Amino acid sequence: MYAQLVETGSKRVKTLEEMSPEERTFQEKVDAEIKIEPKNWMPDAYRKTLVRQISQHAHSEVVGMLPEGNWVTRAPTLKRKLQLMAKIQDEAGHGLYLYSAMETLGASRDEEIEKLHQGKAKYSSIFNYPTLNWSDMGAVGWLVDGAAIVNQVVLQRTSYGPYSRAMVRICKEESFHQRQGYQILLDMMREGTEEQKAMVQDSINRLWWPALMMFGPSDEDSPNSQQSMAWKIKRKSNDELRQMFIDQTVPQLEFLGCTAPDPDLKWNEETGHYDFGEIDWSEFYEVLKGNGPCNRERIATRKKAIDEGTWVRQAAKAYADKKQQKQRDAA
Ligand code: FAQ
C-alpha cells in the first residue's frame, strides 16, 4: 500500500500516478530499501519531517539527562554512581550524534536549539515528570530506556542513512541502560527493606502511563504517521510499538513481583497480546502544551546551561581560529 503513496507537503499522501518524475524515482528508491543519503534529491517535506523528528529526538536525549542528573550526588554506592554517570554521558553522546545527523539535512543546530528554548520545539513528554526517589533511576532505565529501545530498534531501518546509522550505536548503549535500570529494581525487590520495595512500586505507579505515552498518540490521531510510514521514516506505527513494549515488559514486571497501575492489563489468549486500559490522552496533550509537572523547570535549566557555557564555546572558538591562522601563516 505504501509504495503507492508519496508526500504532498500537507498531511495528505498521493499516489504514484500523481507524482512528479523526481518524486516517483525517490519513492521507488525508498520502496526498494535503498537508503537516502544527504546529497541525494529528496522532497522538501521529507527533509522537513526528518529535521523535525531528529531534532525532537536529539532534544529528548539532552533534556533526558536532567531527571537522572538529579540523582548523581545521591546514588547509594560508588558503583551505582559510576553507572549512572556513564549512562547520562551516553545520553549526551546520543544527542550529539543526532544533532549531527540533523545537520546533514542542512538544518542549523543553533537554530533548532533556540526553538527548544523558546518552547517551539518538542521533546519527549516523559522528561517532564519528576524523579522523586532512587528507585526512579531504576524505573527510568527499565521503562523509559526500554520504551526508547523498542522505538529505536525499528528506526535502525529508517530510510535516511545518517539517522539509521546513528541508531545502531545508540541502541547498543540503550540496552546497557535498560539492564542497569532493571538491576537496580531487582536488587531493591530482592534485598531491600519493605520500605524500599514500596518505593519500587511507587516509581512504577508514577512512570508506567507516561512511558506508554512515549510512543505518541494513537494511530488514528497521529497526523504524521501515514506519510512517515510511506517514506519508511517510521517502520511501525505508534500503536504497534506501544503493544510490543507492553508485551515484552509485563513478564519483566511480574518477575520483579510488582504490578502495573492498570486494572485492565491482562493477557488475551485470542490475540496473543496483553490488553491494556485507556491512556489519559488529556494528560499527554497538556504535557505537550508545556503544562507537565516539570516543563518550565527543564527548559529553564537547559537555557541556563547554554548561557553559562557561552564563554567556554567562545574561548574554544577563539583558540581554534588562532590555531588555524598560525597554520595559514606558516604555510
Ligand atoms: N512527546 O504524528 P505523531 C530516550 C508529537 S529518546 C512529545 O505521531 P511522529 C532516550 C510529535 O512529535 C525518546 N511529543 O508524530 C533516553 C508530533 O509533533 P508535531 C525520544 C510527542 O513524529 C532515555 C505530534 O506529537 N525518542 O528516551 C510525543 O510521527 C532516558 C503528533 O504525533 C524519539 O524521539 C511524545 N511522547 O511520531 C534519554 C524517537 N509523541 O508534528 C535520556 C524518534 C508524539 O507537532 C534518558 N521519534 N509527539 O511536531 C519518533 O519515533 C516519533 O517522532 C514519535 C512520534 C513516535 C515519537
Automatic annotation (TrEMBL):
Transmembrane segments: none
Cross-referenced InterPro entries: Aromatic_CoA_ox/epox, Ferritin-like, Ferritin-like_SF, PaaA, PaaA_PaaC
Pfam family, one: PaaA_PaaC
Source organism, top-level taxon: Bacteria
SUPFAM superfamilies: Ferritin-like
PANTHER family named in the record: 1,2-PHENYLACETYL-COA EPOXIDASE, SUBUNIT A, PHENYLACETIC ACID DEGRADATION PROTEIN PAA
Name by which UniProt lists this protein: Phenylacetate-CoA oxygenase subunit PaaA
Protein encoded by which gene: paaA
